[in-house]
Design a protein that fits this description.
Strand order of the largest sheet: 1-4-7-5-8-9-10-11
CATH topology: Rossmann fold
Pfam family, one: BD-FAE
Keywords: Hydrolase
CATH class: Alpha Beta
Radius of gyration: 18 Å
GO molecular function: hydrolase activity
Distance between the termini: 21 Å
InterPro entries: AB_hydrolase_fold (IPR029058), BD-FAE-like_dom (IPR049492), GDXG_lipolytic_enzyme (IPR050300)
CATH architecture: 3-Layer(aba) Sandwich
Protein name: Alpha/beta hydrolase
CATH superfamily: Alpha/Beta hydrolase fold, catalytic domain
Shape: globular
Helix content: 25-40%
Length: about 300
Amino acid sequence: MKRLPITVLVSLFFLNGLVAQDTIIQLWPKGVPNQIDIGEKEVDTLENIRWVRNVQQPSIEVYLPSLPNNTGKAILLFPGGGYQGLAYNWEGVDFAKAFNSQGIVGIVVRYRLPNSKSIVKNRHEVPLQDAQRAIRLVRKMAPKWNIDPDEIGIMGFSAGGHLASTLGVHYDDKVYDNQDDADQLSARPDFMALVYPVITMDNEITHGGSREALLGKQSSDELMKHFSNELHVNANTPPTFLLHATDDEAVIVENSLRFYSSLKSHEVPVTMHIYPSGGHGFALGLNHTLLKGWLNGFIEWLSSMD
Protein backbone atom coordinates (compact mmCIF):
# COMPACT_ATOMS: atom_id res chain seq x y z
CA MET A 1 0.00 0.00 0.00
CA LYS A 2 1.30 3.44 -0.90
CA ARG A 3 2.25 5.62 2.07
CA LEU A 4 0.52 8.92 2.65
CA PRO A 5 2.72 12.03 2.46
CA ILE A 6 4.18 12.90 5.83
CA THR A 7 2.31 16.22 5.96
CA VAL A 8 -1.00 14.36 5.78
CA LEU A 9 0.08 11.84 8.38
CA VAL A 10 1.22 14.57 10.74
CA SER A 11 -2.21 16.21 10.55
CA LEU A 12 -4.01 12.92 11.16
CA PHE A 13 -1.91 12.07 14.18
CA PHE A 14 -2.35 15.53 15.70
CA LEU A 15 -6.12 15.40 15.21
CA ASN A 16 -6.63 11.95 16.60
CA GLY A 17 -3.94 11.87 19.29
CA LEU A 18 -2.84 8.42 18.19
CA VAL A 19 0.80 8.80 19.16
CA ALA A 20 1.60 8.77 22.86
CA GLN A 21 4.75 9.57 24.75
CA ASP A 22 6.22 6.25 25.81
CA THR A 23 8.64 7.06 28.60
CA ILE A 24 10.79 9.76 30.19
CA ILE A 25 14.27 8.86 31.41
CA GLN A 26 16.47 11.12 33.54
CA LEU A 27 19.93 11.47 32.03
CA TRP A 28 21.93 11.52 35.26
CA PRO A 29 20.73 8.97 37.85
CA LYS A 30 23.84 9.47 40.00
CA GLY A 31 23.75 13.25 40.07
CA VAL A 32 23.79 15.95 37.42
CA PRO A 33 27.37 17.05 36.65
CA ASN A 34 28.42 20.69 37.07
CA GLN A 35 25.29 21.41 39.09
CA ILE A 36 24.32 22.04 42.71
CA ASP A 37 20.85 22.08 44.21
CA ILE A 38 19.98 25.65 45.17
CA GLY A 39 16.23 25.23 44.87
CA GLU A 40 15.88 26.52 41.31
CA LYS A 41 12.68 25.57 39.55
CA GLU A 42 12.16 24.58 35.96
CA VAL A 43 9.70 26.68 34.00
CA ASP A 44 7.38 24.87 31.58
CA THR A 45 4.75 27.16 30.07
CA LEU A 46 2.44 27.29 27.07
CA GLU A 47 2.89 30.60 25.23
CA ASN A 48 1.36 29.75 21.85
CA ILE A 49 4.07 27.09 21.80
CA ARG A 50 5.41 25.21 24.81
CA TRP A 51 8.54 26.78 26.27
CA VAL A 52 10.80 24.99 28.74
CA ARG A 53 13.33 27.13 30.61
CA ASN A 54 15.87 26.67 33.39
CA VAL A 55 16.11 22.89 32.99
CA GLN A 56 17.27 21.27 36.24
CA GLN A 57 16.61 17.59 35.51
CA PRO A 58 17.73 16.87 31.93
CA SER A 59 15.96 13.93 30.34
CA ILE A 60 14.95 12.18 27.17
CA GLU A 61 11.29 11.77 26.23
CA VAL A 62 10.85 8.75 23.97
CA TYR A 63 8.12 8.21 21.37
CA LEU A 64 7.94 4.74 19.83
CA PRO A 65 6.24 3.76 16.58
CA SER A 66 4.12 0.63 16.47
CA LEU A 67 6.35 -2.42 16.36
CA PRO A 68 5.30 -3.64 12.86
CA ASN A 69 6.26 -0.23 11.42
CA ASN A 70 9.54 0.18 13.32
CA THR A 71 12.41 0.74 10.87
CA GLY A 72 15.12 0.46 13.52
CA LYS A 73 16.04 4.13 13.09
CA ALA A 74 15.99 6.71 15.89
CA ILE A 75 16.40 10.48 15.91
CA LEU A 76 17.27 12.59 18.96
CA LEU A 77 15.72 16.05 18.74
CA PHE A 78 17.35 19.20 20.13
CA PRO A 79 14.83 22.08 20.20
CA GLY A 80 16.09 25.61 19.77
CA GLY A 81 15.63 28.70 21.89
CA GLY A 82 18.87 30.66 21.82
CA TYR A 83 20.41 28.55 24.63
CA GLN A 84 17.90 30.34 26.89
CA GLY A 85 14.88 28.07 26.49
CA LEU A 86 13.56 25.10 24.53
CA ALA A 87 10.73 25.30 21.99
CA TYR A 88 9.76 21.92 23.31
CA ASN A 89 6.75 20.91 21.24
CA TRP A 90 7.36 23.12 18.19
CA GLU A 91 10.82 21.70 17.51
CA GLY A 92 10.61 18.56 19.61
CA VAL A 93 7.43 16.63 20.35
CA ASP A 94 5.75 17.50 17.04
CA PHE A 95 8.71 16.04 15.16
CA ALA A 96 8.86 12.92 17.34
CA LYS A 97 5.23 12.22 16.44
CA ALA A 98 5.89 12.88 12.76
CA PHE A 99 8.82 10.46 12.76
CA ASN A 100 6.67 7.80 14.43
CA SER A 101 4.40 7.93 11.38
CA GLN A 102 7.43 6.87 9.33
CA GLY A 103 8.47 4.05 11.67
CA ILE A 104 11.24 6.08 13.32
CA VAL A 105 11.74 6.39 17.08
CA GLY A 106 11.57 10.08 18.05
CA ILE A 107 13.41 11.21 21.19
CA VAL A 108 13.15 14.76 22.56
CA VAL A 109 16.19 15.86 24.57
CA ARG A 110 15.43 18.18 27.48
CA TYR A 111 18.93 19.59 27.81
CA ARG A 112 20.26 22.09 30.33
CA LEU A 113 20.82 25.72 29.44
CA PRO A 114 23.96 27.61 30.43
CA ASN A 115 22.12 30.51 32.10
CA SER A 116 21.02 28.44 35.12
CA LYS A 117 22.34 29.70 38.45
CA SER A 118 22.72 26.12 39.65
CA ILE A 119 25.60 25.43 37.24
CA VAL A 120 28.92 25.37 39.10
CA LYS A 121 31.55 25.79 36.37
CA ASN A 122 32.24 25.49 32.64
CA ARG A 123 28.75 26.58 31.61
CA HIS A 124 29.66 26.14 27.97
CA GLU A 125 30.12 22.37 28.49
CA VAL A 126 26.72 21.70 30.05
CA PRO A 127 24.61 21.29 26.86
CA LEU A 128 27.23 19.00 25.32
CA GLN A 129 27.37 16.90 28.51
CA ASP A 130 23.64 16.28 28.21
CA ALA A 131 23.82 15.63 24.45
CA GLN A 132 26.60 13.04 24.78
CA ARG A 133 24.86 11.31 27.66
CA ALA A 134 21.53 11.26 25.79
CA ILE A 135 22.84 9.48 22.71
CA ARG A 136 24.79 7.00 24.82
CA LEU A 137 21.67 6.16 26.82
CA VAL A 138 19.73 5.61 23.60
CA ARG A 139 22.43 3.20 22.39
CA LYS A 140 22.21 1.36 25.70
CA MET A 141 18.42 1.10 25.41
CA ALA A 142 18.48 0.22 21.71
CA PRO A 143 17.57 -3.49 22.15
CA LYS A 144 14.59 -2.64 24.36
CA TRP A 145 13.28 -0.05 21.90
CA ASN A 146 14.04 -2.11 18.75
CA ILE A 147 16.59 0.41 17.54
CA ASP A 148 19.58 -0.45 15.38
CA PRO A 149 22.51 1.04 17.37
CA ASP A 150 24.12 2.02 14.06
CA GLU A 151 21.03 3.96 12.91
CA ILE A 152 20.84 6.65 15.60
CA GLY A 153 20.88 10.23 14.34
CA ILE A 154 20.25 13.73 15.62
CA MET A 155 18.26 16.76 14.49
CA GLY A 156 18.71 20.25 15.92
CA PHE A 157 17.04 23.60 15.34
CA SER A 158 18.61 27.06 15.64
CA ALA A 159 20.69 26.99 18.87
CA GLY A 160 19.67 23.33 19.14
CA GLY A 161 21.29 23.00 15.72
CA HIS A 162 24.47 24.42 17.20
CA LEU A 163 24.30 21.82 19.97
CA ALA A 164 23.64 19.04 17.44
CA SER A 165 26.57 20.13 15.28
CA THR A 166 28.73 20.43 18.41
CA LEU A 167 27.90 16.81 19.22
CA GLY A 168 28.64 15.92 15.60
CA VAL A 169 32.19 17.29 15.78
CA HIS A 170 32.98 16.97 19.52
CA TYR A 171 31.42 13.57 20.26
CA ASP A 172 34.77 12.26 21.52
CA ASP A 173 35.48 15.16 23.88
CA LYS A 174 35.73 14.11 27.52
CA VAL A 175 33.29 16.49 29.21
CA TYR A 176 32.04 14.41 32.16
CA ASP A 177 33.02 11.49 34.37
CA ASN A 178 31.48 8.12 33.58
CA GLN A 179 28.37 7.21 35.58
CA ASP A 180 27.63 3.70 34.30
CA ASP A 181 28.21 1.30 31.41
CA ALA A 182 26.28 3.52 28.99
CA ASP A 183 29.22 5.91 29.09
CA GLN A 184 31.43 3.26 27.50
CA LEU A 185 29.38 3.56 24.30
CA SER A 186 30.05 5.90 21.40
CA ALA A 187 28.45 9.35 21.39
CA ARG A 188 28.95 9.72 17.63
CA PRO A 189 25.67 10.25 15.75
CA ASP A 190 25.25 8.10 12.64
CA PHE A 191 23.75 11.08 10.78
CA MET A 192 22.63 14.58 11.59
CA ALA A 193 20.11 17.11 10.35
CA LEU A 194 20.64 20.80 11.11
CA VAL A 195 17.66 23.08 10.60
CA TYR A 196 18.34 26.85 10.42
CA PRO A 197 21.32 26.11 12.70
CA VAL A 198 23.73 28.37 14.50
CA ILE A 199 27.09 26.93 13.42
CA THR A 200 29.81 29.43 14.13
CA MET A 201 30.82 31.84 16.88
CA ASP A 202 32.44 34.15 14.29
CA ASN A 203 31.35 37.73 15.03
CA GLU A 204 30.43 38.36 11.42
CA ILE A 205 27.73 35.73 11.06
CA THR A 206 26.92 34.15 14.44
CA HIS A 207 23.68 34.63 16.36
CA GLY A 208 24.83 36.97 19.10
CA GLY A 209 22.22 35.93 21.66
CA SER A 210 23.12 32.25 21.39
CA ARG A 211 26.83 32.95 21.63
CA GLU A 212 26.45 35.20 24.67
CA ALA A 213 24.20 32.67 26.41
CA LEU A 214 26.65 29.83 25.79
CA LEU A 215 30.02 31.54 26.16
CA GLY A 216 29.29 34.71 28.13
CA LYS A 217 29.72 38.36 27.19
CA GLN A 218 33.52 38.22 27.29
CA SER A 219 34.39 34.89 25.68
CA SER A 220 37.97 34.04 24.82
CA ASP A 221 39.16 33.52 21.27
CA GLU A 222 39.97 29.93 22.22
CA LEU A 223 36.40 29.19 23.29
CA MET A 224 34.95 30.94 20.25
CA LYS A 225 37.08 28.79 17.97
CA HIS A 226 36.26 25.64 19.91
CA PHE A 227 32.53 26.20 19.41
CA SER A 228 32.81 27.35 15.80
CA ASN A 229 31.88 23.92 14.55
CA GLU A 230 32.86 24.43 10.93
CA LEU A 231 36.48 24.48 12.13
CA HIS A 232 36.31 20.96 13.60
CA VAL A 233 34.87 18.92 10.75
CA ASN A 234 36.93 15.91 9.72
CA ALA A 235 36.47 12.75 7.68
CA ASN A 236 34.61 11.07 10.56
CA THR A 237 31.96 13.78 10.90
CA PRO A 238 28.54 12.19 10.33
CA PRO A 239 26.67 12.57 7.01
CA THR A 240 24.66 15.77 7.24
CA PHE A 241 21.38 17.25 6.01
CA LEU A 242 21.22 21.07 6.10
CA LEU A 243 18.10 23.24 5.80
CA HIS A 244 17.87 27.02 5.86
CA ALA A 245 15.92 29.96 4.41
CA THR A 246 17.71 32.74 2.58
CA ASP A 247 15.62 35.41 4.30
CA ASP A 248 16.44 34.18 7.82
CA GLU A 249 17.39 37.37 9.66
CA ALA A 250 17.94 35.77 13.07
CA VAL A 251 20.47 33.09 12.08
CA ILE A 252 21.74 34.04 8.69
CA VAL A 253 22.12 31.42 5.98
CA GLU A 254 25.91 31.80 5.91
CA ASN A 255 26.00 29.54 8.97
CA SER A 256 24.77 26.59 6.91
CA LEU A 257 26.82 27.60 3.87
CA ARG A 258 30.00 27.66 5.90
CA PHE A 259 29.31 24.23 7.41
CA TYR A 260 28.43 22.82 3.99
CA SER A 261 31.74 24.05 2.59
CA SER A 262 33.70 22.47 5.45
CA LEU A 263 31.88 19.14 5.10
CA LYS A 264 32.42 19.13 1.35
CA SER A 265 36.15 19.87 1.71
CA HIS A 266 36.48 16.84 4.00
CA GLU A 267 34.42 14.64 1.65
CA VAL A 268 31.66 14.11 4.21
CA PRO A 269 28.34 13.27 2.49
CA VAL A 270 26.15 16.37 2.74
CA THR A 271 22.84 17.55 1.30
CA MET A 272 21.71 21.15 1.63
CA HIS A 273 18.33 22.73 0.90
CA ILE A 274 18.22 26.52 0.82
CA TYR A 275 14.75 28.02 0.38
CA PRO A 276 14.22 31.62 -0.79
CA SER A 277 11.78 32.40 2.03
CA GLY A 278 10.60 31.03 5.34
CA GLY A 279 12.45 33.19 7.83
CA HIS A 280 13.54 31.65 11.10
CA GLY A 281 11.87 29.07 13.31
CA PHE A 282 9.46 27.60 10.76
CA ALA A 283 9.69 24.07 12.23
CA LEU A 284 7.55 21.69 10.13
CA GLY A 285 6.55 24.58 7.87
CA LEU A 286 3.07 23.13 7.30
CA ASN A 287 1.53 26.54 6.58
CA HIS A 288 4.25 27.64 4.17
CA THR A 289 3.81 26.91 0.45
CA LEU A 290 7.47 26.19 -0.19
CA LEU A 291 8.45 24.59 3.10
CA LYS A 292 5.54 22.27 3.87
CA GLY A 293 7.22 19.34 2.12
CA TRP A 294 10.72 19.69 3.51
CA LEU A 295 10.38 16.80 5.95
CA ASN A 296 9.47 14.50 3.07
CA GLY A 297 12.81 15.45 1.53
CA PHE A 298 14.61 14.63 4.73
CA ILE A 299 12.93 11.20 4.96
CA GLU A 300 13.93 10.49 1.37
CA TRP A 301 17.51 11.53 2.15
CA LEU A 302 17.52 9.26 5.17
CA SER A 303 16.19 6.33 3.12
CA SER A 304 18.86 6.92 0.48
CA MET A 305 21.57 6.04 2.99
CA ASP A 306 20.24 2.51 3.54
